[in-house]
């Protein structure tokens, strides 16, 4: 089976339902032989301890939405995963904005572990702005994965995305093992690869990169797989990797594009 590099994104700063599901998905995809980057804003000890062997932890190390989108855009441009699956409303919106800025247009799959309505209620006074951003960004998602038909209806209503691109696929891991079932895993993998193929993304082999394994808090300090606040990955690469890097937009260009995008929103 061909190896693909895939990226999963969560922005939660604590162990949430989204984080647990992405940890389980990352473990399953890695077990199948794929290269998986789990991207987080800031890693915490519980997340690091739950990281499966072979999953690379990519820490954006940022504190604002602007710097987070900039760092994510640079990651996508440099490493070109065949698909990016984000989980949670904030992560989904950041991923879709980064995709717009990324010249390679990596396909984004937006995932909701809870209903969009639940996330909007939790957002309080920010809900109106989030609804507007959903309506603008969600039509650019390759797919939207939801845990229930109710969540799917809400995603279609709030995001203005057609029913054909909203898929109900519960990703709750087993309570005892913390793992996804084979059925869940293979269904999700099929959807991710289909999205990558449909949008013409080119899978990028990362042989030669150092792969950090989860399972210990010390792994983060030893790993070279973290992003600094400028969004530049710090790790050793072969000359072939360097030659395959995508052209990067300058910080000034990215900030200008973000400013223009924000004005339109």
Summary tags:
single chain, 265 residues, alpha/beta, Rossmann fold, seven-stranded parallel sheet, 7 strands
Indicate the topology.
Blueprint lengths: L4 E6 L6 H15 L3 E6 L4 H5 L6 E4 L5 H15 L3 E5 L1 H13 L6 E5 L3 H8 L3 H11 L5 E4 L2 H11 L6 E3 L13 H17 L19 H5 L16 H6 L6 H14 L1
Parallel strand pairs: 1-2, 1-4, 2-3, 4-5, 5-6, 6-7
Description:
By secondary structure, the chain is of the alpha/beta class. Helices cover 45% and strands 12% of the residues. It has eleven helices and seven strands. The protein has helices at 17-31, 45-49, 65-79, 89-101, 116-123, 127-137, 149-159, 182-198, 218-222, 239-244, 251-264; strands at 5-10, 35-40, 56-59, 83-87, 108-112, 143-146, 166-168. It has a seven-stranded parallel beta sheet, sandwiched between helices. Helix 3 packs across helix 4 and helix 5 (116-123) packs across helix 6. It has a single domain (5-264), classed as Rossmann fold (3-Layer(aba) Sandwich).
